[in-house]
Design brief:
alpha/beta, Rossmann fold, seven-stranded parallel beta sheet, 14 strands, binds nicotinamide-adenine-dinucleotide, binds 2'deoxy-thymidine-5'-diphospho-alpha-D-glucose
């Protein structure tokens, strides 16, 4: 164990984004020991990490972040000097049905991890020197923006912009790092709460923390209850595509490997106690991105153009559905030199191809328990 230069716990490493972070760190830093701590909930899947599981600098531990004693024991056992915390309940629709699980994992789990790191690091002679607790959060904590002029309907500058809580960039309104928190779903409320706890551990105990808030990710290994993999799979199986409301909500999409690269840069070069927004200035109305997905899947499957348009099915809107998210990531770009590597067209092509080429990965998830969940989610719409 001691031949490694650093010992980093990545929580939630068997999930979508976590698996990309683990892969990047394990491959790029053979002198770091990467300890993936994951409970393997329905969203955790060790098949996401088949290509790195035999690497000598990778270790998997099945554990619940809410279990404080185990977290403390892991900190000691592996001489942990860094935590990259991604483990969470992450799906808004599930949070509407079961808010308690979200409060437990996202709030109490984060607190248990913070307290374990604090107790361990404070017991060392060097204390917090060379340590880092990096918490991965979401743009959803900032609430919802109005649509812009070009997106139609509402005026370009919301009342919030004029009160200074949103920043005007590129003539529009975006979330900046100082935007006031205004979460609306049980998911975003739980993430907001966990962000506050992380900052409180810096302000109260001097723990070297960093928080980042990222926009919607897309790419390989995303659990198929989220829009993009769900729709790719449904098109393939000629199942309905459930569009919430009128499909007018706007999301800001970032390729997952670009998020993982940002996490790497920020983990190494980010300033303690800072917040960085991560996003690629890539906003899409749901209905427009859905049309791009349909067109791409049909083309790659050899179907005639327009073949799957009839699968679009407008369903009851998500309760409290945030209208628009849009991240201003210029602080990260200017201060740390990160920028997205992929154009959206390239990213979505890669993503659709990946899901079509990895049907077995998809089938393993979509059979059994998941099928029952999916039916129960949509049976009452
Ligand atoms: P995911 O749902 O795909 O994966 C979550 C992982 O956490 C799973 O492997 C699961 O098994 C694990 N986990 C859940 N509860 C746990 C517990 N109690 N103990 C240990 N492990 C547990 O999530 P994701 O989409 O990869 O998101 C990862 C993180 O990034 C989350 O914190 C999420 O809030 C944040 N985020 C996600 C997005 C996005 O678009 N997906 C965007 C911004 C931020
Ligand atoms: O913004 C970052 C967030 O992005 C992350 O913090 C969350 O963990 C992640 O799940 C994601 O949240 P969203 O709710 O935006 O993602 P989702 O894929 O569930 O939905 C994207 C949009 O598509 C949203 O406006 C709801 C809509 N939608 C979704 C599904 C699953 C549909 O219209 N139909 C669907 O079946």
């Amino acid at each position: 164990m001691n031949e490694f230069k650093k010992h980093i716990i990545v929580t939630g490493g068997a999930g979508f984004i976590g698996s990309h972070v683990v892969r990047l760190f394990v491959n790029k830093y053979p002198d770091y020991q990467i300890i993936n701590v994951d409970k393997l909930t329905y969203a955790g899947n060790l098949a996401n990490l088949r290509d790195v599981e035999e690497k000598p600098n990778y270790t998997f531990v099945k554990a619940d972040i809410c279990d404080f004693e185990t977290m403390l024991q892991l900190m000691r056992q592996y001489n942990v000097d860094g935590v990259i915390h991604l483990a969470a309940e992450s799906h808004v629709d599930r949070s509407i049905k079961d808010p308690f699980t979200f409060a437990k994992t996202n709030v109490m789990g984060t607190l248990s991890l913070l307290q374990a790191a604090k107790q361990y690091w404070e017991s060392l002679p060097e204390k917090y020197d060379g340590k880092r607790f990096y918490h991965i959060s979401t743009d959803e904590v900032y609430g919802a923006l109005e649509l812009t002029h070009s997106q139609g309907i509402t005026p370009p500058f919301s009342t919030k912009a004029s009160s200074g809580s949103h920043h005007e960039a590129y003539g529009e309104t975006f979330f900046v790092e100082s935007t006031k928190y205004d979460p609306h779903s049980p998911y975003s409320a739980s993430k907001a709460s966990s962000d506050h706890f992380v900052r409180a551990y810096h302000d109260t105990y001097g723990m070297p923390t960093i928080v980042t808030n990222c926009s919607n990710n897309y790419g390989p290994y995303q659990f198929p209850e989220k829009l993009i993999p769900l729709f790719i799979n449904n098109i393939r199986h000629r199942k309905p595509l459930p569009v919430y409301g009128k499909g007018e909500n706007v999301r800001d999409w970032l390729f997952v490997e670009d998020h993982a690269r940002a996490i790497d840069i920020i983990y190494h070069n980010g300033k303690v106690a800072e917040t960085y927004n991560i996003g690629g200035f890539n906003e899409w109305k749901n209905i427009d991105i859905i049309k791009v997905i349909i067109k791409t899947v049909d083309r790659l499957l050899g179907n005639p153009e327009g073949y799957s348009d009839e699968l679009i099915t407008f369903v009851t809107d998500r309760a409290g559905h945030d209208l628009r998210y849009a991240i201003d990531s210029r602080k990260l770009q200017k201060e740390l030199g990160w920028e997205p590597s992929l154009q959206f067209e390239e990213g979505i092509e890669k993503t659709v191809l990946w899901y079509l080429d990895n049907q077995e990965w998809m089938d393993n998830i979509t059979s059994g328990e998941y099928e029952k969940y999916y039916e129960s989610m949509y049976s009452n719409r």
